[in-house]
Target: ABC transporter domain-containing protein
Amino acid sequence: MSGLKLPRLAGEIEFCNVHFAYPTRRKLLFEGLSFSIPAGKSLAIVDMSGSGKSTIISLLQQFYDPYTGNILLDGYDLRDFQLKWLREQMGLVNQESALFATSIVENILYGKDSADMEQVIEAAKAANAHSFIQSLPDGCNTQVGEGGTQLSGGQKQRAAIARALLRNPETLLLDEATSALDAESELGVQKALSEIITIRDVDQIIVLNNGGVVECGAHSELITKDGEYATFIKLQISSDNSENGIGKTLEVMRTSESSTTIQSP
Model:
């Protein structure tokens, strides 16, 4: 495969005046979207219209190209990279993560098949999955069933987080990772995610509305402004009686500067 592969990736991401519409639609979803994430920093995205967060992930993973504008990784246009290599630099946890009909350890190893058992255990611990894995009938060799049907929703998501962390990606993408879970399952996943990042300690939050960024700043700064973000947080807390529910509607991106070829957070 042709395309650019960097010997060392820092992980800086920049959206530069991006205009985008899905091929089957005429209306632009993004109109001049611009933001950046420095290497080693984290970004949370709040989308007031509910249609842009997952699209940003699709653009980052090169499932689509911008209509106009550029998306840069360490200063290079994403379209210049070898696609397989580019996607290997990213770890993604979706709203409903898919597992394969094999053992739980083999599912986690899909993140990095060259990893040893010690690395798998460390990833499982970081994802708050190790204890439930140990309690399964055959431990890490327990068969999860097609699509992970032998596990609960929360267990599936924690296994998916472990898989993403095992890859040790330059960019970690969390796309509403608890939105499809019931309250009990959500608690276990929220604990895992809080070990990685929380809305209060992300470096930057951007608020999207009508195709562009309408607010940008840290949690405390945006709360003080009492604008769209502050209203959103009040509604979420009122709905869920805690800040746990906030993660249901967020996409969090975390990048990291590393010293080797494929390293991360």
Observations:
- The mean pLDDT is 80.
- The domain at 8-89+170-265 is CATH 3.40.50.300 (Rossmann fold).
- The chain has two domains: 8-89+170-265, 98-168.
